[in-house]
Backbone:
């Protein structure tokens, strides 16, 4: 048997990737472990991979807000689902004509999309437009529309994928068969672009799921809070209570009754679990779509 040659580049690449994976995984393990550790133990001994003193006090503290958390989870799923589907639809509508060499405004439209990646109107003009022109403040649209505006990077990814991965002969054959542009888009382009659509969908979905800033700006009613905003409010309340107790304020109880440190970890775990559950289903599309869409020109 002939021995297989060891490729030095592959060995170094594997080591580097393992180090990067460790850098990503180790903090998550510490976070989960800390969320199941007694708050006083974390404060005294620090974080560890295995809880030194197992405790569910952080999750019991969150359980007190169980109904609010369930409602906010439903709102987050609704906003993420609707926002992601609309965003993919709009991005595809823009990316398809930009991928067409025969589109008369292809160059100028591409430059316009690229400029949106470099400049934006700023927070104050954006807030005035949404509140005084569109009147979306204190509505669920305030959680969807600001993230719905097309991201230029996603448009360029999708445009590049369509241009390089879908043969022109297929589109020409579809036109000969009598298909119009919208039929080609939804019956030909859409099914053949599953990898890049899944990639963009995952990126947009994560952005919607993690968004708290728009709710902070435009939402005033607690019943409309998404999960991230509600968890942020719970964390602020826990830190406030812990500060008042430790300073001998008017709050009753001991400092251990408000597990501010471990609650922070538990909140991060609760907010991360849905994304971790969804990601494996998109991984194969994510790798193919991102590589093909970004590398090929």
Residues:
């Amino acid at each position: 048997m002939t021995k297989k040659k060891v490729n030095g580049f592959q060995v170094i690449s594997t080591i580097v990737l393992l180090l990067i994976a460790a850098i990503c995984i180790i903090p998550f393990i510490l976070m989960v472990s800390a969320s199941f550790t007694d708050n006083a133990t974390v404060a005294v001994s620090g974080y560890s991979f295995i809880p030194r003193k197992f405790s569910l006090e952080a999750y019991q503290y969150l359980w007190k807000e169980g109904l609010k958390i369930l409602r906010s989870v439903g709102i987050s799923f609704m906003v993420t689902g609707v926002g992601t589907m609309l965003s993919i639809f709009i991005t595809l509508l823009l990316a398809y004509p930009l991928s067409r060499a025969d589109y008369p405004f292809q160059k100028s439209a591409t430059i316009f999309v690229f400029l949106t990646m470099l400049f934006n109107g700023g927070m104050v003009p954006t807030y005035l437009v949404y509140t005084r022109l569109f009147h979306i403040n204190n509505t669920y649209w305030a959680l969807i529309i600001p993230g719905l505006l097309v991201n230029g990077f996603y448009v360029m990814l999708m445009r590049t994928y369509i241009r390089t991965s879908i043969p022109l002969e297929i589109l020409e054959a579809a036109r000969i068969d009598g298909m119009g542009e919208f039929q080609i888009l939804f019956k030909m382009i859409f099914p053949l672009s599953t990898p890049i659509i899944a990639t963009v969908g995952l990126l947009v979905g994560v952005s919607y799921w993690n968004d708290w800033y728009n709710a902070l700006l435009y939402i005033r009613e607690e019943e409309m809070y998404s999960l991230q905003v509600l968890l942020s409010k719970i964390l602020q309340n826990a830190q406030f209570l812990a500060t008042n107790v430790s300073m001998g304020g008017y709050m009753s109880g001991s400092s251990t009754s408000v597990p501010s440190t471990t609650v922070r970890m538990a909140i991060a775990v609760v907010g991360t679990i849905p994304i971790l559950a969804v990601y494996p289903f998109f991984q194969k599309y994510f790798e193919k779509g991102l590589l093909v869409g970004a590398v090929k020109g």
Observations:
- The two ends are 42 Å apart (CA to CA).
- Residues 250-256, 293-297 have pLDDT under 50 and may be disordered.
- The chain has 14 helices and no strands.
- Residues 78 and 203 are 16 Å apart (CA to CA).
